[in-house]
Amino acid sequence: MIELDEDPQYKVIKAMPPEELATLIDHMDSDDAVDVLNQLVVNDREAVISHLAAKEKSLHIIELLRYDEDSAGGLMAKEIIKANLNWTVVQTIDEIRRQAENVEKIFSIYVVDNKEQLLGRVALKKLILASSDTKVADLYEDSLISVPTYMAGEEVAEIMRKYDLEAVPVVNVKNKLVGRITVDDILDLIREQAEEDIQAMTGISDDVEESDSVYRLSRARLPWLLIGMVGGLLGAGFIGFFEEGLNAVTALAFFIPLITATGGNVGIQSSTLVVQSLANRSVFADSLTKRLLKVLLVAVLNGLVLSLFVMATVVFLYDKEVKFGLVVSIALFSVVLLASFMGTLTPIVLDKLGINPAMASGPFITTANDLLGLGVYFMVATLLLNL
């Protein structure tokens, strides 16, 4: 059941009586059980927990439900294998056999003291090769990365990615070992975040599924479509303001799509790279000044290539005057520069304000750069062609 998509899973959960759902949950890991129970209202949740056969399982679930579901505490599973540092190898192996019955995958054996505080870990190979009377205290490694229960899931994912961890232990404020997070749990979180970012970048404001109602799908898509429409109306106003100039030089209208499309594409490229860097925090590896200088150099190079190409095309292919070609090429070069900076700075500013930087891509950047491109194009035309 836990492999089902969200919507069909919810329908199955809602249709099952509490005692049947409790029977299924008895055979799940605690973190999967909590994911299922979080879809129920409080009363239904309590009814299911009251029917659980294993008292220890119910206590684990109640503990996990207290945490925010996107925190380390909400992501962790209680099923872990731990050894006391005073145990001998024989005692430890016996305990591993007992504890492993409830653990689906064994990544590490965590070592704790008499107060259940995390000290380190011991490799299974070391236990097997050591003599039976050797104590765990002589075998374990204290160089261990752990995360607190309150850490955000995104930070946990970044730590596991950075250090290539298959599992990470979770500790409370007293450094007591309370659970573990496996790479499977993090992959689910990363997938959900990627889906949310993709939806945000395409102008979908809510987390929606294709199976959602028509009303919910429409409500999620409509806000940014309205913003795009308002931007289009403002663009029409720009064009109307320069109507006399367009009547005097009608060829100006031919290149409006070129200017707006190029600005939009450059802005989306820049913002996408920054959003990607913000996601893995590599954007902070360089100073903002260094990053902007790099953006400037790339924009100048791309702008020169594009403007020279369009200059040659306008003059030779369309048989227009050099002055007219200069209007289009200068406007295009300016738009490439401005769109690059807007696409770079907007996600960084939004991230500083605590807003999802993915919202800076897609419709927002496209609409803003359309208006910017039209303004620059007509200003250059007015100056050079004396409109």
UniProtKB/TrEMBL annotation:
Domain spans labelled CBS: 140-196
Pfam annotation, one family: MgtE
Identification of the protein by name: Magnesium transporter MgtE
InterPro entries (alphabetical): CBS_dom, CBS_dom_sf, Mg_transptr_MgtE_intracell_dom, MgtE_N_sf, MgtE_transporter, SLC41_membr_dom, SLC41_membr_dom_sf
KW Cell membrane (keyword) present: yes
Origin: domain of life: Bacteria
Family statement: Belongs to the SLC41A transporter family.
Membrane topology term: Multi-pass membrane protein
MF GO annotations: magnesium ion transmembrane transporter activity; metal ion binding
Membrane-spanning residues: 222-242, 248-275, 295-318, 324-350, 362-385
Record's subcellular location: Cell membrane; Membrane
Source organism of this protein record: Cyclobacterium qasimii M12-11B
Cellular compartments per GO CC: plasma membrane
Keywords of this entry: CBS domain, Cell membrane, Magnesium, Membrane, Metal-binding, Transmembrane, Transmembrane helix, Transport
Subunit structure: Homodimer.
Function: Acts as a magnesium transporter.
